[in-house]
């Protein structure tokens, strides 16, 4: 099975997203949160639950360090102590410092200047920073820079595979490109779509799925035991 064409994918996604929106309601991940806080969250949540990342963010905020300058002013051990609740605290400290150091060196410390760049050059720049992988880069593009990117994560890929919309193990770069062709070029709508897939993945389409109460059961190849094509 190949990736569907943009038109085919768009036709499959529209009713799925409508059903999810009707079932779960608006996700509203799109907030007025300060861009650096979004970026710190995207780095700190890697390989951990959001509750741990949120506690680390609160520690940084309380210490007056939730900014490029604030992070750069922290010494390594002090930063490690603050981000400890997010797990892998030595690595997370190094990632925060790498990001803040890049903004200082490449943009004179001006994060807004960096985030104003066009989407694909900015994505390449983000991917050049140590500790920023594709999923983190797309979360930063979408939620901090408010650009129409799509965050392809495990939740999205697993659900779309089980639903029979995409082939198994499609390369994420190709999947992101195809999703961006199929979905509206609108950051707010892309954020809602991502939020809905995460909600589905947490509520129903977990590694061991709970299909019985899933709003997409009727149209799901996996949930129907393979009876749907
Ligand atoms: S029916 Fe099951 S496999 Fe299909 S999307 Fe829902 S939870 Fe996932």
General description of the model:
There is one protein chain. This protein is an all-alpha fold and 229 residues long. The protein folds into 2 domains: 6-28 and 151-219, Helix-hairpin-Helix base-excision DNA repair enzymes (C-terminal) (Endonuclease Iii, domain 2, Orthogonal Bundle); 35-144, Hypothetical protein, domain 2 (Endonuclease III, domain 1). The chain has helices at 6-24, 35-44, 50-62, 68-73, 76-83, 89-107, 111-115, 119-127, 134-144, 154-163, 172-182, 187-203. Iron/sulfur cluster (SF4) binds next to α10.
CATH topology of the largest domain: Endonuclease III, domain 1
Proportion of β residues?
under 5%
Structural class: mainly alpha
Highest CATH level, the class of the largest domain: Mainly Alpha
Describe the biggest sheet? none
Helix content: 55-70%
Shape-level CATH architecture of the largest domain: Orthogonal Bundle
Task: Tell me, rounded to a whole number, the average pLDDT.
Answer: 95
**Terminal residue distance:** 11 Å
Number of helices: 12
Q: Rounded to an integer, what's the Rg over CA atoms?
A: 19 Å
Low-confidence stretches: none
The CATH homologous superfamily of the largest domain is called Hypothetical protein, domain 2
């Amino acid at each position: 099975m190949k990736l569907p064409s943009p038109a085919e994918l768009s036709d499959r996604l529209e009713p799925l997203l409508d059903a999810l929106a009707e079932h779960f309601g608006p996700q509203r991940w799109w907030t007025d949160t300060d861009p650096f806080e979004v970026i710190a969250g995207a780095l700190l949540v890697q390989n951990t639950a959001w509750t741990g990342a949120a506690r680390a963010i609160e520690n940084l905020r309380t210490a007056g360090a939730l900014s490029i300058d604030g992070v750069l002013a922290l010494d390594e051990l002090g930063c490690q102590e603050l981000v400890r609740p997010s797990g892998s605290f030595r690595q997370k400290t190094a990632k925060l410092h790498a990001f803040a150091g890049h903004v200082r060196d490449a943009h004179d410390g001006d994060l807004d200047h960096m985030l104003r760049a066009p989407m694909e050059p900015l994505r390449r720049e983000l991917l050049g920073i140590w500790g920023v992988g594709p999923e983190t880069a797309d979360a930063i593009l979408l939620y901090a820079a408010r650009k129409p990117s799509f965050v392809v994560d495990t939740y999205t890929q697993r659900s779309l595979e089980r639903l029979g919309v995409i082939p198994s193990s499609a390369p994420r770069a190709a999947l992101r490109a195809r999703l961006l062709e199929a979905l509206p070029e609108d950051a707010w709508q892309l954020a809602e779509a991502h939020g809905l897939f995460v909600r589905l993945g947490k509520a129903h389409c977990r590694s061991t799925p709970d299909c019985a109460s899933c709003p997409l059961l009727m149209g799901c190849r996996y949930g129907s035991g393979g009876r749907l094509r």
